[in-house]
Design a protein that fits this description.
With 175 residues, this protein is of the alpha+beta class. It has helices spanning 21-30, 54-69, 80-87, 111-115, 146-150, 153-156, 164-174; strands spanning 2-8, 12-14, 17-18, 34-38, 44-49, 75-79, 100-105, 126-130, 133-137, 159-163. The protein has a four-stranded antiparallel beta sheet, sandwiched between helices. A four-stranded antiparallel beta sheet has the order 8-9-7-10. The mean pLDDT is 94. This is DUF1697 domain-containing protein.
Length: 175
């Protein structure tokens, strides 16, 4: 048995309806996963499962989500070991926990696509690719940056963003 982290790209089903975390935990149980637990209300799921490849879990969770909630959502799954490795690679530890964000990618991000983002950066912002994931220090509120709106699936690939505070919170849940 292993521990996994699943990150949902979105929990918004319609403009006035979001998936509540109780329903997400129930879905995990229905799929046969054990001890599902969530962190904050933004689609962070930790659970136990038999030894499986993360991609197999992604497919099962995405299919189960679509069947239960009627909408496809990209879900990124990492094992506890790969999550802890991600935690150890933050290149911007001197940044603020709510302003440093990692875009956890399904496949390694293309460096050329990241290079194309640089003209959108403002003074103090930093970006780095580490282990195929994209780290960004927004050096201010991410919601006020032009860079945030450019971090789309269409532009850089399937992935989902979490701030450093959430990354650390998930790490504490699996320790």
């Amino acid at each position: 048995m292993s521990t996994f982290i699943a990150l949902l790209h979105s929990i918004v089903l319609t403009p006035d309806r979001r998936v509540i975390m109780e329903d997400l935990r129930a879905l995990a149980k229905e799929l046969g996963y054990r001890e599902p637990r969530t962190l904050v209300s933004t689609g962070n799921l930790v659970f136990e499962a038999d030894e499986m490849r993360p991609h197999e879990l992604e497919v099962a969770l995405e299919e189960g989500f679509e069947e239960k909630f009627g909408k496809h959502v990209d879900i990124i799954v990492r094992s506890d070991c790969t999550w802890m490795a991600l935690c150890s690679t933050n290149p911007f530890r001197d940044g603020s926990g709510d302003q440093v964000i990692v875009r956890v990618m399904r496949l390694p991000v293309d460096p050329k696509k990241v290079e194309a983002l640089k003209p959108l950066m403002t003074e103090g912002q930093r970006i780095a690719i580490v282990g195929g994931d994209l780290w960004i220090d927004f050096a201010g509120k991410p919601s006020q940056s032009k860079l945030l709106s450019a971090l789309t699936t269409k532009r850089i690939g399937i992935g989902t963003m979490r701030n450093w505070n959430t990354v650390c919170g998930l790490a504490q849940m699996i320790m």
